[in-house]
Design a protein that fits this description.
The chain has about 190 residues and is mainly β. The protein is built from no helices and 18 strands. It is elongated. The protein starts with 9 loop residues before the first strand and ends with a strand.
Length: about 190
């Protein structure tokens, strides 16, 4: 009678890098990661977890089974921590480097055309490019979402390109960042 064992041959982690904001930011969320031993038929599926700096990133569990997730929670100070998953069987480990950044809110926001105007005219079937002006330049969330009050008069795409479609007046609005600061560009079409 033979007794076969299946040793761990390696470990894989769900991601090798992650970015989070400090826990005092308005957009803070925790993150999850997982690790799995290989092969999946290994007898010992226990994984031990550690963090290089629990002040920067803490972990929800120090021991899991293969495939089980842990939660990463950022502290209140920015920095970098390495989260390491180590297989109980063998000398196998995998790491995820977590960068914790301080959230920088958008303080001022406007949209302008290439000449710096916040309103203007555009002919039907012509285009006009808008450019966001975001302060500070290192804002954490500088995503801009554009929309037209009346897309039948002028539409706008995700990149701020206005397309004159009809005769009339409309306003192009843009929302920036988590703060949802709003700016607008008035379009007064020419025939």
């Amino acid at each position: 009678l033979m007794n076969l064992t299946h040793d761990v041959a390696g470990i894989e982690i769900s991601q090798t890098s992650e970015t989070m904001f400090t826990n005092n930011s308005p957009v803070y969320t925790s993150k999850t990661i997982s690790a799995s031993v290989t092969p999946s038929t290994a007898d010992n599926k226990t994984i031990h977890w550690s963090t290089s700096s629990s002040n920067i990133v803490s972990i929800s569990k120090s021991t899991t089974t293969s495939g089980e997730s842990i939660t990463l929670s950022a502290g209140s100070i920015p920095g970098t921590a390495t989260i390491t998953a180590t297989a109980d069987d063998g000398d196998f480990s995998a790491s995820c480097v977590v960068t914790v950044d301080q959230y920088v809110p958008v303080q001022r926001f406007s949209i302008k055309d290439s000449e710096g105007n916040t309103s203007g005219s555009i002919m039907k079937n012509r285009t006009l490019q808008l450019y966001p002006d975001i302060y500070p330049a290192n804002a954490s969330d500088s995503t801009v979402i554009y929309q037209s009050d009346n897309p039948n008069i002028a539409s706008v795409n995700d990149d701020g390109l206005i397309n004159g479609r009809g005769i009339g007046n409309t306003t192009i609005r843009a929302i920036c960042g988590n703060e949802e600061l709003e700016a607008s560009f008035s379009k007064l079409p020419k025939v």
